[in-house]
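Quick check before the chapter quiz. The format below is the same one you will see on the exam, so make sure you can read both the input and the output lines.
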Amino acid sequence: MELIIYGTFLALSLVAYGARQVAKKGDEKKTSVSNINFKSFQKSFFLVYFLALLGDWLQGPYVYKLYAFYGFKESQIAVLYVAGFASSVLFGTCTGPLADIWGRRKMAIAFFCYLHILLSNKNVSKLLVAFCRACLWWDFYLYVILHL
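Here is the expected output.
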């Protein structure tokens, strides 16, 4: 089994390296972005965005441990996670229009508020988790598109 995993990893790594080499040849033809304001925005955006991703990634293992600590079976935890991702699909269709109404910056700030509530409270609905995840995947991208 380990041989299959390592072999797959090596094969995918070689494919990724080959794709990068092909893409590098196309980079020579492109012109670089010289707008200093956009580069400054890009650096500040990525700092905040990667912190948001880190918060979302950290939530998974801790919430799993929390559920296990409170006596949930593994199958029940799996159902909770699937319900969260499924409701994220539903909320994903409405967070874009909400960002248009309320503003992308407010929605990004709301994401951090929701994330704080999620990580500090054990009795949080998976619907709030789904809304938070939908905010993460929609609103930050929309915020960047606005500034292009």
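If your answer matched, good. The mean pLDDT is 76.
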